[in-house]
């Protein structure tokens, strides 16, 4: 019983993460917004 509960939580968290990634991806489809985040990420990575 405990394993099923644990597995269900993992699956629900995975689904939630996929949902969040899709929302962020849709939000970044606008060119202006993408450029803002691109410059921020590039400054962090360099």
Comma- or semicolon-separated keywords:
single chain, 46 residues, mainly alpha, 2 helices
Description of the structure:
- The chain has 46 residues and is mainly alpha-helical.
- It has one domain (2-45).
- The protein is built from two helices and no strands.
- The longest helix has 26 residues, at 2-27.
- The mean pLDDT is 77.
Describe the structure concisely.
The protein has 2 helices and no strands. The protein is an all-alpha fold and 46 residues long. The longest helix has 26 residues, at 2-27.
Itemize the secondary structure elements and their pairings.
Blueprint (H helix, E strand, L loop, with lengths): L1 H26 L3 H15 L1
The structural class is mainly alpha
The residue fraction in helices comes out at over 70%
Sheet bearing the most strands, described? none
Percent of residues in beta strands: under 5%
- Shape category: elongated
The structural domain count equals 1
State the end-to-end distance: 48 Å
Total number of β-strand segments?
0
